[in-house]
Amino acid sequence: MTTPLLEVTEVGKTYGSVIALREVSTVVNAGEVTCVLGDNGAGKSTLIKILAGLHQHDEGEFRIEGEPVRLGSPREALDRGIATVYQDLAVVPLMSVWRNFFLGSEPTKGFGPLRMLDRKQGREVTRKALAEMGIDLRDVEQPVGTLSGGERQCVAIARAVHFGAKVLILDEPTAALGVKQAGVVLKYVAQARDRGLGVVLITHNPHHAYPVGNRFLLLKRGRSLGCFEKADISLAELTRQMAGGAELEALEHELRGAVS
């Protein structure tokens, strides 16, 4: 059996008297998408922060490729091959696409104090990396702020893939996008998966998660409602669980009574 890229077992996190996460378990395998679903306040952000090295868990175990870890920083997570793309994307809108692609890791030429930015190499590598992901931009010199939300998400995904990420964590990548742009982003999520990355897709939309997901972790108020393989749960059941299941049915019955 292949060792998972990431695995959390009975993980918990508290902030003072507030229980943000309790007894949450799931795995992330190479070439698969693990979807984490839940409404606001479900614990999705807390789980991301633990996986990305921003916070440490208080309970349970977090393993990377079988090794128990307590990540001390996002840099440490990145060094272990875990790249996180947040909703704000951490881009500089007025900078060009290729400068954002290399942000913090710019290619240079020359030696010692005479080293300077290698713009030609930067443009060529960015263009090639985007093309390999199937992203065709008119001009990598254009400011990244001129791209659509979907295109910016795709650039961020391609950047993580290019710099050697083994695990790609995507925080609500389709939340602020229209139907067509969301579909484009999901296509690149599937491409990252097919290139052998383990993907963690955070979302509150089961209709976005189900087409690309292999596994679905459902969170509610910091607790797990279950972690299901795709073969074990339908889209209808996933949606029902997300909507509250029995709670929603009780509300529907109450509303019908009020109308009649």
UniProtKB/TrEMBL annotation:
Domain named ABC transporter is located at: 6-246
Superkingdom is: Bacteria
Offer one Pfam family short name for this entry. Answer: ABC_tran
Q: Does the keyword Transmembrane helix apply?
A: no
Q: Which GO terms describe its molecular function?
A: ATP binding; ATP hydrolysis activity
Entry annotated with the keyword ATP-binding: yes
UniProt name for this protein = ABC transporter domain-containing protein
